[in-house]
Specification:
The protein is of the alpha+beta class. Helices cover about 55% and strands about 15% of the residues. The strands form 2 sheets. It has a 6-stranded mixed barrel, surrounded by 4 helices. Strands 2-3 form a two-stranded antiparallel ribbon. About 15% of the residues have low confidence.
Length: about 500
């Protein structure tokens, strides 16, 4: 107790104590605010993806290559790789949809194809889903015009940005209810289909890659990407689209499938005329195959129940998949987004490094200030030892002073950090840059102060006390009492 009283009197008697406390407090406040911004960007990025197209958990086949909801992301060759299917789908879906962690699950097929408008091709990622169930899982998607297609509709939905790009490039206006031609390369030939535009939607936060997503009825997508047929649909050959094949490979198709061989329109036309009887027979069997095709899916996109621990859910799902020997795995939204999320994380990393450098510099200065303050008292410490103070008393007295300074500063700093974040969140700081909007998950800055931030600030103040105590106390204890007394005279 005497040691604490002596340390307190020393702190009160020195004018530099207030400066040290304020300096440490502002540094810790900056740390708390920075962590709140970091958590805000983390929450923002997660919101950008999980509420728009990835969900919270995605079930996918277990593969040896990088695979996202956009397909195989292996460099160069990934664009045309065939995606594996979930097997056994029915059992997997039944287990996942009934999990204690999930509030909803929607199966999905992914394929790459092109929208054919006015002899121009627009490459896109097609997500074959049940639109009505899918929208229930994605609160970030808002229907602007039309309505989500039903199971019995040969229809698709376009984002506002994609529709605008198509209309600007083609000089035509597309309306809900219009028919859009689709084309995809399926290994040896092109497959053509048609779908009705049932709705136009927008994402709460969008990016260029996300805007290329087309939501489509899976019963159209399966034959389009060759899951049940690679033949040309004869119904497409009408007077209105008789020139479709002649210009199929001019614009977007070659850009979308750059690794594919050149397309010979004349040869393909002759080939399909010769195969017309086989085509008709194949289409006649489509109804019989439908029940089997309904179990062909690449993913199951899941939404977690409010408050459910997603990491724990993924761990338990994967454990159960391994126990049942199902060749699939559960991943979080980050893995499901794949490369589309990487550039945002690079932005966040650069942002974080900048703040860390600034805060780190401040704490170096703080630590040096504490060390210098302790070294200035080495003569005083020598005098105490000369009149009988033991080494243990000196060490504890130094530690008590340093802890009083840093803990007081830590409490003050955390309080300032919370107040500062309140003003940041309620200051209506708006972003106009699309990348900042994606980074923070919206057009307004929102910071998140967690209990871990406060704990981290206090832990750092304690660590500062220990670091700033070790070196000065060694110097003080090594000072000869005789030398200290002579210096005092």
């Amino acid at each position: 107790m005497f040691t604490l009283k002596f340390a307190f009197k020393n702190i009160i008697s020195r004018k530099s104590s207030l400066v040290i406390i304020l300096f440490i407090a502002f540094s810790i406040a900056a740390l708390v605010m920075a962590n709140a911004v970091f958590d805000g960007t983390r929450s923002g990025i997660e919101k950008t993806f999980s509420q728009n197209f990835t969900g919270d958990i995605v079930i996918r086949p277990k593969v040896q290559f990088p695979m996202s909801l956009f397909g195989d992301e292996t460099p160069v060759t990934g664009n045309l790789s065939e995606l594996p299917q979930l097997v056994p789908y029915s059992d997997i879906y039944s287990y996942v949809s009934q999990s204690e962690f999930t509030r909803g699950a929607v199966p999905q097929i992914t394929g790459q194809a092109a929208l054919r408008i006015e002899e121009k091709n627009f490459g896109a990622y097609f997500f074959g889903v049940d639109a009505q169930d899918y929208l229930k899982l994605m609160p970030g998607i808002k229907i602007l015009e039309g309505e989500a297609f039903g199971d019995d509709q040969n229809a698709l939905m376009l984002s506002k940005q994609m529709l605008q790009k198509i209309q600007d490039d083609c000089g035509v206006k597309l309306n809900v209810g219009d028919t859009i031609q689709l084309a995809a390369f399926t290994g040896s030939s092109y497959t053509l289909r048609a779908a009705e535009l049932s709705a136009v939607y927008e994402y709460s936060v969008h990016n260029d890659l996300q805007d290329k997503i087309v939501l489509i009825n899976p019963d159209i997508l399966r034959p389009l990407i060759g899951l049940n047929s690679t033949e040309i649909d004869p119904s497409l050959f009408t007077e209105d689209n008789s020139g479709l094949l002649e210009n199929l490979d001019e614009d977007g198709i070659d850009g979308l499938f750059g690794d594919a061989e050149d397309f010979d329109a004349e040869f393909l036309t002759q080939q399909n005329e010769a195969q017309a009887p086989e085509t008709a027979a194949a289409q006649a069997q489509d109804g019989e195959k439908l029940s089997n095709q309904e179990t062909i899916w690449n993913y199951i996109v899941c939404s977690a129940k409010p408050g459910a621990p997603v990491r724990l859910a993924i761990k338990r799902l994967n454990k159960e998949f391994a126990r049942r020997e199902w060749p699939c795995q559960a991943v979080d939204w980050r893995a499901a987004a794949g490369m589309s999320a990487q550039y945002i994380y690079w932005m966040r990393l650069i942002f974080n490094i900048g703040l860390i450098v600034i805060i780190g510099t401040g704490f170096i200065i703080v630590n040096n200030t504490l060390v210098i303050a302790a070294l200035d008292r080495s003569k005083e410490t020598g005098a105490l030892r000369a009149i009988g103070a033991g080494r243990r008393f000196v060490a504890l007295e130094y530690l008590a002073e340093t802890l009083m300074l840093t803990i007081t500063a830590g409490i003050l700093g955390c309080a300032l950090g919370v107040v500062g974040n309140y003003f940041l969140s309620n200051g209506s700081i708006h972003f106009g840059n699309i990348y900042l909007i994606q980074l923070f998950g919206g057009e307004t800055l929102q910071t998140v102060v967690r209990a871990s931030n406060i704990f981290g600030g206090m832990l750092l103040s304690f660590a500062l006390a220990i670091v700033a105590w070790i070196y000065p106390v060694r110097i003080a204890l090594n000072t000869s009492p005789v030398a200290a007394m002579e210096a005092v005279r």
